[in-house]
């Protein structure tokens, strides 16, 4: 994986609540991952969103062992994100800290009973959408996650924008629409992030979703760094 400007990424996360990483995956890698959606043996479970009130569309959670590109991204991105997460926890007055290596992080959470892998592959068809939500999966949560667009906007699909909302205390929600090209990734909070105010840092609640697909077929890779209980 190419070197990333982590200072810029952290600055954008702190300022906007998200950071885009252009061309994190090449087009052939995107197509190969999207094609796995039809290989049910690779996945531990499939969720049809409308059955649960999550929206419309569906997604599948990979089983262990994860596909090599997914496992490599999860392991490589975790250490710099853990450094950001530790600074966020300190800023929000949260005592827990995250180890440097993702393997050590998973071992800690697996010992606490969160053992089911959470990286997922999402599929949207015309009319599908994903309601605003948070990917928590258990008591123990890593505060940052990643989504990679695997399809080509305006060629494979139209619509289907990635959306973030931020709710600050005693204020109306702020909306962020994140344009992505194939292979682009967006880093964003799972549930909360710190914001600097006149009296120091305070927590804001974040949710994310996907707007209605106008046409075509859209696949997305989601990487959550904690596993599910």
TrEMBL record:
The keyword Transport does not apply. It comes from the Bacteria. Residues 115-228 form the Fe2OG dioxygenase domain. InterPro entries: DUF2086, Oxoglu/Fe-dep_dioxygenase_dom. It holds the Pfam family Oxygenase-NA. Keywords: Iron, Metal-binding, Oxidoreductase. Signal peptide: none annotated. PROSITE patterns: FE2OG_OXY (PS51471). The keyword Metal-binding applies. Belongs to the iron/ascorbate-dependent oxidoreductase family. This is 2OG-Fe(II) oxygenase. It comes from Janthinobacterium lividum.
């Amino acid at each position: 994986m190419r070197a990333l400007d982590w200072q810029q990424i952290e600055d954008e996360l702190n300022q906007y609540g998200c950071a885009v990483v252009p061309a994190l995956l090449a087009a052939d890698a995107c197509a190969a991952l999207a094609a796995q959606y039809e290989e049910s043996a690779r996945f531990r479970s499939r969720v049809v969103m409308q059955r649960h009130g999550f929206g419309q569309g569906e997604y599948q959670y990979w089983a262990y062992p994860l596909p090599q590109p997914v496992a490599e991204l999860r392991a490589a991105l975790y250490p710099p994100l853990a450094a950001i997460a530790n600074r966020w926890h300190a800023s929000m007055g949260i005592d827990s800290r995250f180890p440097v290596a993702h393997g050590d992080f998973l071992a800690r959470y697996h010992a606490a009973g969160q053992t089911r892998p959470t990286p997922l592959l999402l599929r949207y068809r015309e009319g599908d959408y994903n309601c605003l939500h948070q990917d928590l999966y258990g008591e123990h949560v890593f505060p940052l996650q990643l989504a990679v667009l695997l399809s080509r906007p305006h060629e494979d699909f139209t619509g289907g924008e990635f959306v973030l909302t931020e709710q600050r205390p005693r204020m109306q929600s702020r909306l962020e629409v994140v344009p992505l090209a194939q292979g682009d990734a967006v880093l964003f909070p799972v549930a909360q992030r710190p914001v600097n105010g006149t009296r120091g840092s305070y927590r804001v609640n974040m949710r994310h979703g996907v707007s209605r697909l106008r046409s075509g077929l859209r696949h997305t890779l989601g990487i959550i760094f904690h596993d599910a209980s």
